[in-house]
C-alpha cells in the first residue's frame, strides 16, 4: 500500500485545521481511510492508504480531503486555466510503443524546500502507482524559464475553431536515435547520448528496460535541443529548484487517459500552492487537444441503493449535502431508464424529504468552490417526482477522482461523509445467524498458541513479487520444494512490488526482519496467512490454503529452537509430529527437516541458508518453519 510522508504542521495550514492536536488530526485522517504508520526522523507523519485514492499522494491532496471533511470547502472545484502560449508538436518519428503526450504550464509558484519535496514525492508516487513504474506514464517537470520555444507566429491566444488556441511557442515530442543528440542528464556533469545515459547513469540503468529494443527513443526538444528523455530522465538544463517560478509539466505514456488523469492530479496539487494553470496545445498529426483535461464526468446513483447499502433512512437533501461534503456535486436527476440499474424497489419515501430550500446553493459555498457548474446547481432546484423508485441523483465527478468507476464508489463517499462510525449495526433480515467457520476457529487457536510460545503475530500482504518469493530465497519456480509452485499473477498490477500472490509465507517474515534490523533482538515473528499456487485441476485454476510460519532471529538461533517451538505447537493440538531430514534451497543442508503432522508431509523446519540471510541484510542466524494450517486438524 502507498505510504506518503507529510509535515503535520504544513497539513494543518493547508487544511485549515488550526492548532488541532496530533491525536485528533490522526483520527480525522483515519476517518478518511488514511492510517498512521509512524513518524519520520524529523517528526513527519507516515500515512498509508488504499491505492485507489491517488489524489491523496501529496500533502496538498490530503489537505483538500480534510477541508471537505471540516466543511471549509463544498462541491466540485475546477481551477480556471489561462490561454495556451505553449504547444507540444508530436512528430511522426515518435516510437509507436509510447505515442501519447500531454502537458500543462503552471505559473506564479513560490517554491521552498518542503513544497519542492512534496512535488517530487507526488511525482514518484504517481510513477509507482498509476504510471506502473513509468511504463504506462512518466512525468517530467521543467523550469519554464530555461526553455526556448520554437516560434510559430507573432500573435497568440485566439481560437482556431477546433477548441484549441494558437500557441506561439512550441516544443517537439519526437524520436531520437540511441546514439543521436547529446544532452546533460540530471545529476550529470557531461553530455551523453541516450544510449550512453542507459549504460552509465544510475537512473538510466534502472529504467533501461522501458526503452529496450526500440529503434528510436522518445525525446522532447525545444529550440535549443534535447532537454528530456522520457521515461528515463530529464536534462539538467531545465532542472527545477527553489528559485523556479514557472513550470512546464509534461507526461508521456502508452495511454492518453492515464497520463491526462495523472496530469490533473499534479495540476490540482500545484493549484493548491497558488500556481496559475495555463493550457498547452497537444498537436497530433490528425487532431489537436487542449490540455490539461479538467473536465468533469457525470454518474448516476439511486437513492434507495444508498439507503440499502448503508442501512439507513436518509432524506434526499442530506444525500446532496453529504456528496458536496465529499467534494462532488449532485442534483436529483430526471426519471430515466438509464438510471442506476440496481434501483430495484422502494425502501423509504425520501422524495417527501426533499426540501429544495435546504439544498445547499452556490451562495452557501466558500470562494474556493467558485469554479462549480451553474448548470448542476440549477438542476438541484428542479422538482422531483413523488415516486421514490425514480429518485436518482446525477453526480458530477472532479477530474482528479480516478477511483470513481461505479455507483458503489459514490455510495462509499456518502458513507464516509456520513461517518461509518455513526452507522448502527443491525442483524440482516435472514432466518439464520452466522457463526465462526471451523477453519477460522482453528486459525485463532493456533495464533493464540503461537503468541503463548513467545511469537509476535504479524499480518502481511498476500500480494508480493517473484523476486521476493524466489530470487531472494534462493528458490526457482518449479523446484520440488515448499513455496516453489507457480504463483497466480496479477494481470495489470498497480505496482511492481505487488505482481503475484505469494506461494509461501516465510519470504514475508524475512522482509519484516530486513526492515527491522535497527530493532532490538531477539525477534521471534509468526504469521498465519493465505498462500496460493496455480493448479489447473481447481475450478478457479488456483489452489489456496492457510499456512503457518515462524522465524526466530537471534544470536543463538538453531534448528533445535525452531523444532522445539514446532513440537510445543503440535502438542497443543494433540497432533503427532515427526521431522525426517530433507533439503530445501532456502535452508542449510543437514539442518532442515520435513514437517510431518499425523503422517502427512505439510511443511519444513530448519536454519535459513547464509545466502538468504545476506540477501536480506541479516547479520545473525535465523531458524524458521512453515506448514499448512490444516495439518493441525
Chain-wise SSE layout:
Elements (H helix, E strand, L loop, with lengths): L2 E4 L1 H8 L6 H10 L3 E5 L5 E4 L10 H12 L10 E10 L9 E8 L5 H16 L8 E7 L6 E2 L17 E8 L17 H7 L1 H6 L9 E5 L4 E4 L3 E2 L12 E7 L2 H17 L3 E8 L4 E4 L5 E6 H8 L5 H10 L3 E5 L40 H6 L12 E6 L9 H12 L19 H15 L3 E3 L4 E2 L1 H4 L30 E2 L4 H9 L8 E12 L7 E12 L5 H14 L4 E2 L8 E11 L2 E9 L1 H6 L6 E7 L5
Parallel strand pairs: 4-8, 4-13, 18-21
Antiparallel strand pairs: 1-3, 2-3, 5-12, 5-13, 6-12, 7-8, 8-9, 9-10, 10-11, 13-14, 15-17, 16-17, 19-20, 21-22, 22-26, 23-24, 24-25, 25-26
Helix pairs in contact: 1-3, 3-7, 4-7, 8-11, 9-11
The radius of gyration over CA amounts to 29 Å
The assigned structural class equals alpha+beta
Helix content: 25-40%
Determine the mean pLDDT. Answer: 88
**Count of β-strands:** 26
Beta content comes to 15-25%
> How can the largest sheet be summarized?
11 strands, mixed
Low-confidence segments: 154-164, 341-388
Please give the alpha-carbon distance between the first and last residues. 34 Å
**Approximate shape:** globular
Helix count equals 16
